[in-house]
Amino acid sequence: MTAGIGTLSQAELVRYSRHVILPEVGLAGQERLKASRVLVVGCGGLGSPVALYLAAAGVGTLGLVDFDTVDASNLQRQILHGTSGVGGSKLDSAEARLLNLNPYTRIERYDTRLTASNALEIIEGYDVVVDGTDNFPTRYLVNDACVLAGVPNAYGSIFRFEGQASVFATADGPCYRCLFRDPPPAGAVPNCAEGGVLGVLPGLVGTIQATEAIKLLLGIGKPLIGELLLVNALDMDFKRLRIRKDPGCPACGTREIKELVDIEQVCEVPVAGAYGELTVGALADRRAARHELFILDVREPHEWAIGRIDGAELIPLGELHRSLDRVPHDRDVVVYCKGGTRSAQAADLLAKSGYTRVYNVAGGILAWSAEIDPTIPRY
User: Fold this and answer.
1) Residues 239 and 292 in one domain
2) DSSP 160
3) 192: annotated active-site residue
4) What is the maximal distance between C-alpha atoms in the chain?
5) CA-atom Rg of the chain in angstroms
6) Quick one: pLDDT band at residue 195, thresholds 50, 70, 90?
7) Are 126 and 39 within 8 A, CB to CB?
8) How far apart are CA 227 and CA 197, in angstroms?
């Protein structure tokens, strides 16, 4: 990034006048923003406010990484997108919204999943990466790629009513692995689709990420380097925790991580020896062949009301341990939830309770809706 190469037009001076009159920004700072390049990984809950505010601030180039489509259930929090965009590409929706907000911002699109084979190529050349991911494999991949590329990572995460933010992978600061060395065990942490999230929370945390990115680009203030900001929206409570750079960190300490590796298999729901796994296609085949099945839905009653697999019985995961008498031993027990995490926990509980014919449905009812029965709403 080179300050001063993006000469501002008269229209831009008017647009950014509230920035220019700030002594900490000024004309030179605004030109620095125009010359800067920021990569936003994910155009969802966090990526929406990040991209909107960075575009509005006058960041010259925004890279957007996303391969998903807009779902109606996204609109509760993903403010880049609208009802008219449902079913379409998130990148299309995001680009149209951002260019309408600021036509002086250049959008670079990456309609792909971030993987070990493309992450470095995509990240290199950007001044800051903003992590708007919602899963552990990509979060660790973004961290490791930022460390290897020497690009700061404005990190954020959200769950239910709580969020976190920090700045990782700077020259002297810690990285994400200094805080969380390895991904959690499979199924230990539900994602937002399973656990829910307050719609305004990603706006709060994403705005913090955008603020940190702008501070990094301008070299002003005190970024959250070496600090983890904890946000509790229910109590409107903010706490800061100090994070030290770990000399033993394999990413930024010992530098043992010299190349990127996809860790998808670490975070996927494991197939335990005591229970099996079915795809939704295999379940449909068994139903068509009239196999003796007990289909167990372990979601919550409000999810059951939205849509369900015909013939299933509802026993929420939290009630299963005291409702085992409702689950037969003489049939195949097929367990599903929304995406596969809670059902894996339920299948494990059943297997440990002596059930020998237990199967977890990979992808849950979302996969069933996408591949078998599109009349079931996605949520």
Assistant:
1) no
2) B
3) yes
4) 77
5) 23
6) low
7) yes
8) 24
The pLDDT of residue 65: 97
- The answer to whether residues 45 and 202 touch, using CB atoms and an 8 Å cutoff, is yes
And the tokens for 133? Answer: 């991911």
Residue 87's identity, in one-letter code, is: G
Spell out the residues 6+ positions from residue 159 whose beta carbon is closer than 8 angstroms to its own: 189, 192, 195, 197
What is the C-alpha to C-alpha distance for residues 279 and 281, in angstroms, rounded to an integer?
Answer: 5
Q: Active site includes 337?
A: yes
- Express each pLDDT in 127-158 by its tens digit: 999 999 988 999 999 999 999 999 999 999 99
pLDDT tens, position by position, 237-291: 999 999 999 999 999 999 999 999 987 544 444 444 479 999 999 999 999 998 8
Q: Read off the CATH number of the domain in which 332 is found.
A: 3.40.250.10
Residue 216 placed within a domain:
yes
Instruction: Please say if the pLDDT value at position 90 is more than 70.
Output: yes
- Co-location of 121 and 260 in the same domain: yes
Domain count, the chain: 2
* Domain, as residue range, for 287: 276-371
C-alpha span between 77 and 32 (Å, rounded): 31
**Amino acid present at 76:** Q
pLDDT per residue as tens digits for the range 287-324? 999 889 999 999 999 999 999 999 999 999 999 999 99
Q: Which of 175, 178, 192, 252 is catalytic?
A: 192
CA distance 189 to 267: 10
pTM equals 0.75
